[in-house]
Amino acid sequence: AKQIVAENPKAWMPQQFENEANIKIHVETTAQEIAKDFPDGLDYVITGVGTGGHITGVAQVLKQKFPKLKVFAVEPEASPVISGGKPGPHPIQGIGAGFIPKNLHTNLLDGTIQISKDEAFEYAQRAAKEEGLFIGVSSGAALAAVAKNCLKFRKVQEY
């Protein structure tokens, strides 16, 4: 892609891992929708990290609105770079790029949750069978992260 851009003056590359517009759109839309849907607050946001734009934009807004909010990044167990581990190959498409994206502001994270490929696939399949939701494996990873931690995070915070 970089070669195409270098050779063609009409070509453009969005650079979604470092383009601040990625964060901005989640600040202006996704975070606002979540805040509107949960006016009394949230205790936790648990979501996968691909480009970093979603989790960063949402966390920027919601942590200001709900100061006790805890934000957890979901990453592949086989490539735990956000947790300080080494990158590795994995089949969980959409998360775990193998590096920490510029758009991921790690200072907004309260922790990470590592999910195995088996857990991610299991929860994607369960969502289809049990709820009729046809989701991808990265969404399966997010569901697995919630399921693995819901008892630990069970105590509801006061706002």
Automatic annotation (TrEMBL):
It comes from the Bacteria. It catalyses: O-acetyl-L-serine + hydrogen sulfide = L-cysteine + acetate. SUPFAM superfamilies: Tryptophan synthase beta subunit-like PLP-dependent enzymes (SSF53686). InterPro entries: Cys_Synth/Cystath_Beta-Synth (IPR050214), TrpB-like_PALP (IPR001926), TrpB-like_PALP_sf (IPR036052). The keyword Amino-acid biosynthesis applies. GO terms for molecular function: cysteine synthase activity. This is cysteine synthase.
